[in-house]
Write a sequence for this structure.
């Protein structure tokens, strides 16, 4: 039973990280119908920003809590500005072009950012400072749920609640939902659609930055390439949950994380990805719009 | 009629080829072009760049003293990023640029992909670091030599260390699914089973670059293994060992020379402490090795990196074979490599029938206070 719980929490914290990234995919898709392939890179840039800021602050000798908070803020601001800029440079000029053009532009942006970080920073793996200490009260169960797992789960939950409130009750949230439903109509009733789209990129990128910070302090290393696989997995999770649906992205991520963890634990980690993607195929066969996605009726 | 026409065309074509080919022959007479192929960018660049430095040092030395029998050495340096699909392009480029010998192939997978192209072109290839056993043992690549012992020698050493020295009876074997890591892991498994003194409680592959490895670490814990033998490179190794410490798993960690790199210690930080890995024997008492390191410091201002001495030795073996054979013809070079011993930083070496260096081996190292220390 212990083993089951251990695997459960391993899967849950992995799912939580996927969820933070998957939200960006699903929100952008919901609003402009674009798969933002550069989103995994935003996560990577969040991790790199955290690395730089945390290292500098550690040298300055600030208290740990201050370092974590300032690093988090810096990562969010920096990644959000990347998200904002990417949208303006790579997607906005293509908004009325065929979907395929924007998709290619997204893939190009992803490669550009990877190589940019490779050249501007380093190709090496970098050791990430230990930002989350081992809490004494966690020690008895540290072999099941580590302190970093706990922080990941709490932070993700708080971020999700914040996002839900934002979408449900704020002005910008309402504007986002309206734009997602019908962009032309939203424009007609006076919603500044450009601003809504920018806001979506900023929020999605902020979430990815938090994910970058958390996973980097969890595994203790970063590299320019970490965004690729994480991005693909998060995208899979978003599709699994129903792309365009925010609760769907969270559910899809948790399901994906747990599947991978249990597949590793009870079958073999050789087949981790086989199980994850078989699950995706199965769900898409029986529910093509994903777990919580709305079936899209085509008007003829 | 058509036959005659074809003959005419063939004759014209042959004549044309001769006029084109002649100046080429004239050019190659005064230089010997050595291709240097390896990862010079990307996450495994730290394994490839020291070889480039070694090649530059020796090429400069040879050219300063009048070349190989009067012929200057010219280096053609090309990046493979350690990816098989890129390595084949690199190989084709080096062949068409007129390389006559190849130093490199750093990673086994990329080297294996490129070898048939070099073989077709009749080029000698000496790798400082590709340890995949079939590269020499299969006999498929008679043009391939290496100045490092193959993986099975390493796996045997690691298994002996785990079973005989440490007395472990339950061993988990993990690999990164790559040619190098999986090859090493399979040999380790085979040797553990053959010993009859220990059992393999877990044999798993992990996906490189995966977000985290906590599930597989939990599985190791569940298996009751006393040690983990890992086949692969340092990025995965440092993630796994960090996660082992995080999940309070106190099994030890034994790995291969893909991990025995200072980057592993730098990235895993205090979690690396106590980890074991096999790597080429410490040659720092060899005066030639000391000289090679000094030359690197003089030329580049830093200490050399991974496989530098192997690369230095490979380059020495290659150039002295070319001098002894007075040709870059494959058969002549092979004969020279197999019969004339060369003094290198790794000791005095010749090569066996299959292309493995005789007198090159491994030791077990442990991370102690942030440094790899050779265990006697």
């Amino acid at each position: 039973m212990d083993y089951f719980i251990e695997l459960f929490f391993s899967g849950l914290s992995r799912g939580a990280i996927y969820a933070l990234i998957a939200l960006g995919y699903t929100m952008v898709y919901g609003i402009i119908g674009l798969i933002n392939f550069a989103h995994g890179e935003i996560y990577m840039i969040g991790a790199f920003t955290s690395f730089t800021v945390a290292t500098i602050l550690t040298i300055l000798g600030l208290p740990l809590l201050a370092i974590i908070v300032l690093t988090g803020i810096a990562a969010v601001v920096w990644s959000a500005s990347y998200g904002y800029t990417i949208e303006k440079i790579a997607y906005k000029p293509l908004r009325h072009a065929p979907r395929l053009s924007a998709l290619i532009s997204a893939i190009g942006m992803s490669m550009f950012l990877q190589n940019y970080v490779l050249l501007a920073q380093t190709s090496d793996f970098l050791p990430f400072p230990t930002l989350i200490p081992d809490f004494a009260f966690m020690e008895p169960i540290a072999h099941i749920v580590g302190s970093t797992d706990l922080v990941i789960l709490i932070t993700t939950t708080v971020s999700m609640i914040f996002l839900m409130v934002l979408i449900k009750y704020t002005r910008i949230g309402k504007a986002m939902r309206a734009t997602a439903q019908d962009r032309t109509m939203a424009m007609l009733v006076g919603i500044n659609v450009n601003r809504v789209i920018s806001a979506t990129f900023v929020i999605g990128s902020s979430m990815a930055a938090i994910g970058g910070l958390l996973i980097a302090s969890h595994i203790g290393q970063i590299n320019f390439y970490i965004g690729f696989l994480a991005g693909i997995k998060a995208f899979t999770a978003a599709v699994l949950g129903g792309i365009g649906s925010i609760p769907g992205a969270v559910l899809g991520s948790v399901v994906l994380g747990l599947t991978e963890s249990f597949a590793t634990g009870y079958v073999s980690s050789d087949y981790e990805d086989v199980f994850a993607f078989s699950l995706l195929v199965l769900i898409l066969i029986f529910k093509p719009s994903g777990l919580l996605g709305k079936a899209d009726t085509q008007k003829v | 009629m058509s036959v005659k026409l074809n003959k005419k065309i063939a004759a014209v074509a042959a004549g044309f080829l001769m006029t084109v080919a002649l100046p080429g022959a004239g050019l190659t007479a005064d230089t010997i072009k050595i291709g240097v192929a390896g990862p010079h960018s990307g996450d495994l660049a730290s394994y490839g760049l020291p070889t480039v430095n070694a090649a530059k040092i020796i090429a400069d030395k040879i050219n300063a003293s009048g070349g190989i029998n009067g012929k200057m050495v010219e280096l053609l340096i090309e990046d493979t990023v350690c990816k098989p699909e890129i390595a084949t392009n690199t190989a084709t480029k080096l062949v068409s640029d007129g390389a006559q010998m190849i130093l490199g192939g750093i990673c086994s997978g990329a080297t294996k992909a490129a070898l048939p192209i070099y073989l077709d072109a009749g080029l000698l290839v000496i790798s400082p670091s590709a340890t995949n056993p079939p590269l020499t043992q299969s006999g498929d690549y008679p043009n391939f030599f290496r100045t490092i012992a193959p993986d099975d020698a390493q796996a045997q050493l690691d298994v002996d260390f785990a079973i005989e020295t440490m007395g472990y009876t339950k061993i988990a074997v993990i690999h990164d699914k790559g040619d190098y890591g999986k090859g090493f892991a399979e040999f380790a498994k085979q040797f553990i089973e053959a010993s009859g003194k220990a059992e393999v409680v877990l044999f798993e592959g992990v996906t490189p670059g995966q977000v985290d490895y906590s599930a597989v670490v939990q599985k190791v814990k569940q298996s009751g293994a006393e040690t983990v033998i890992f086949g692969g490179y340092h990025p995965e190794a440092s993630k796994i060992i960090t996660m082992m410490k995080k999940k309070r798993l106190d099994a030890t960690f034994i790995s291969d020379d893909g991990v025995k790199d200072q980057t592993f210690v730098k990235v895993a930080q205090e979690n690396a402490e106590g980890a074991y890995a096999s790597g080429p024997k410490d040659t720092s008492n060899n005066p030639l090795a000391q000289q090679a390191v000094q030359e690197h410091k003089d030329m580049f201002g830093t200490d050399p990196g991974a496989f530098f001495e192997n690369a230095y030795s490979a380059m020495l073996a290659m150039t002295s074979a070319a001098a002894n054979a007075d040709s870059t013809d494959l058969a002549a070079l092979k004969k020279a490599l197999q019969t004339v011993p060369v003094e290198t930083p790794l000791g005095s070496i010749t090569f066996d029938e299959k292309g493995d260096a005789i007198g090159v081996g491994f030791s077990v190292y442990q991370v102690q206070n942030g440094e790899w220390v050779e265990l006697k």
